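Item description
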Amino acid sequence: MNIPAAKIYFPDEDKEKISEQIKQVLTSGMLTLGKYCKQFEEEFARYVGTKYAITVNSGTSALEIPLRALDVKGSSVIVPTNTFFATPASVIHAGGNVIFADATDDLSVDPDSMNEAIQKNTKGVIIVHIGGMVSPHTKAIKEICEDNNIFLIEDAAAAHGSTLDGKMAGSFGDAAGFSFYPTKLITSGEGGMIVTDDEKIYNRSLAFRDQGKSGFYRNFHVELGYNWRMSEIHAVIGLSQFKRLEEFIEKRRGIAKIFDKRIGELKNITPVKISPSSKSNYYKYVALLKDGISREEVKKMIKEKCNISMSGEVFEVPCHLQPVFKNLGYKEGDFPVAEDLCKRQICLPVFPTMTEEEANYIIDSLKGVIG
């Protein structure tokens, strides 16, 4: 077998419909912020359960724009260190200062570490639904934010359709950002979505994404915005994928059940536990290697011997140890839980077209490589 780390899936019928709709877009001459962007926004907001949704050109923009709308310039924002570069970078690009916090065993930001990190100039917190899982700690973090009168933004880049106590990812904070990058559950090629219930965040986000203009047809600039628009062609692709989201999630959960059932056969790897109150979309199936086992060696061996490409980690190096954030003054050992998780985690490949045979082959192969 040849099993890739991820696989994008467009059924033939979807490709045909996408082609037809792109022809319509090209014929109409309305290539950006048209009817398909509007439809995508309306359907996505309805799905998440928020009043508003705003299409943008990336998941990174979907974080930076709400931060600008919340006026973080000169203030600090707390961010988990075990996240992708874009999370803290969005704070810096929006004019804010980053404060990192440690993680818990379920990969969530640690509420205690977050609480201790709050300073006089702290304006908000970004939580990250790592691997598509909404941690039960989200509730405690939300309470801390409310008690301290600071905002909560969800980095839900990979959490489309994930829930906690039946409540959708993206509906817990003041705003949330989703990504439609090609590796995510659904893709628009490039693209992102902001969701919020806050009318002020919504209106300012509309301006920010379109060069700060007060309206699409007016060159009257009320914000120092940027070109963060989504094109109609990207919206067509995103809408097509969005209609498959629940189907994709169901298939991913089916693969995860096979992994859950069989991973106990392995002595040197343990899955990250997901609370019964949380339903993950399994963007990633995250497991922890026994201390002392080289992840790089495991990935190399399983690729060479079994032709399996393991999925990328979430994440390999915590942000406080990334060279680009060296000037923030953090050092190795500052966030021991996150450092340990980043060092030992490994992600099994999961994609909606994976077969039971392929899922079992992955476990059998891991058993042969690490026992």
User: Anything to note?
Assistant: The radius of gyration is 21 Å.
